[in-house]
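Morning F.,

Quick status update on the modeling queue. The single chain you submitted on Monday has been processed. Sequence for confirmation:
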Amino acid sequence: MMKEINLENWDRKKQYNFFKNYEDPFFNITATLDVTNLYSYCKKNNLSFFLAGLYTANQAMNQIPAFRLRLKEGKVLAFDKVHIDSTVLNNDNTFSFCHFETASTFMEFMKNGSKVLNDHRSGALNDSHVYDLDVAHSTTIPWVSITGFKHARNGNEKNIGIPKLVFGKFQEVNERKIMPFSVEVHHALMDGIHVGLLFEKMQQFMDELL
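Structure tokens below.
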């Protein structure tokens, strides 16, 4: 479900009008998350750390209205919920896009996500939803502890505004597992405070998971 934002009454009308026609309206923030607790929980319970990261990001985005906004034909649309698409490595070192639906609980997401990965491995997937609006795009680069990231763009995405996320390689720092995480978003739809809130909510979930 979605609704159209009334731009005349929107509290960020001024910022929207300022950034919407930029040639490059995106900004990127790369910072770190302490994934020690999340990693330990996954190892203890034989769960996918990859899927757990996707759930954490997706859950946090759905709690922040700005991350559920999209652009279409000059309109700003607000979705009730958004899902997450991610690249998944193939056996030949190419990749596919997989679609992971939002779930109400962590374990439900893990169960559904495991099925998606199994279907990917068996070649049963035929629709990645990669062109849907109600998604975020994610990728994982476990070989590099990134300090920044530049996404490939086709020129039309400034009129869509889908967030793009990157999980990097975690490092051991003072007996903690510290992971770089990149967030790229459309400045007409949100500001740095919203990205900061995403980091905060993701970290909170990871810290509170038992």
